[in-house]
Amino acid sequence: MKILLVEDDKEIAGHVSHALTSAGHDVDSADDGFEGLSRASSGDYAALILDRMLPRLDGLSLMKQLRADGVKTPILLLTTMAGIDDRVEGLEAGADDYLVKPFAFAELLARVNALGRRSEINGRAAATKLIAADLEMDLIARTVHRAGHAVELQAQEFRLLEYLMRNAGRAVTRAMLLEHVWNLHFDPRTNIVETHMSRLRTKLDRNGAKDLIHTIRGTGYIFRAD
User: Fold this and answer.
1) Rg (CA), the chain
2) Can you tell me whether residue 150 is helix, strand or coil?
3) How far apart, in whole angstroms, are the C-alpha atoms of residue 143 and residue 40?
4) Sign (positive/negative) of CA torsion 49, 51, 55, 58?
């Protein structure tokens, strides 16, 4: 199961990541709220483990933004705040479960596995198509159509477009694309992103169709249908 851990305490993050990895999970990490929001917004995770007290953007605000954006990834909130009012506030902000620090790793794993089962159930009922303007992507059939016409994409082009559409209206950087589309956690100093982006744009914008992918100078790209 692919999990995002958002925790600014490096020692806790290391122990939790090790425990989850040892249990067979695939773990990505972020150490502040803004980075956590950017990663979680992709919707690529089966579960999110979130510290409540985070730098730059606190856990409650992060959850509220995710839920407002329609991200339904199950969330386990980690916190030192054990009061009933604190628990209620966390759950109402969007958490699916609540675990107070310090905690036993066995309980953490059990709660994460329960969230994973919930994610699988939600996933079966989730939409299998992404639609923006006259562009339609079928995630099951692995097809793309624009204005009713088929757009033939290579595997990486399909993954690139899917990531852009899932993050529609948000700026995505070259580093984000390398990590989420090519699974590269370093910059290989090649033009792989630019090359694939150019090909994708050419295929989508044929016959004078309106541009959907826009370059943000000095930042990256944004998919915008309006």
Assistant:
1) 19
2) strand
3) 25
4) positive
Q: What does pTM read for this prediction?
A: 0.55
Taking CA atoms, 187 is separated from 29, 172, 183, in Å, by 18, 15, 11
Q: Are strands 220-223 and 213-216 parallel, antiparallel or unpaired?
A: antiparallel
Q: How far apart are CA 64 and CA 59, in angstroms?
A: 9
What's 211's DSSP letter? P
Max CA distance (Å), the chain? 60
> What kind of fold does domain 2-125 have according to CATH?
Rossmann fold (3.40.50)
Report which DSSP code applies to 89. H
pLDDT tens for 106-163 read 899 888 888 877 655 555 444 578 889 899 998 778 899 998 899 999 888 998 999 8
Closest CA to 38 of 183, 176, 221: 176
CATH dotted code for 129-223 = 1.10.10.10
Pick from 72, 63, 207: which is nearest to 146 by CA? 207
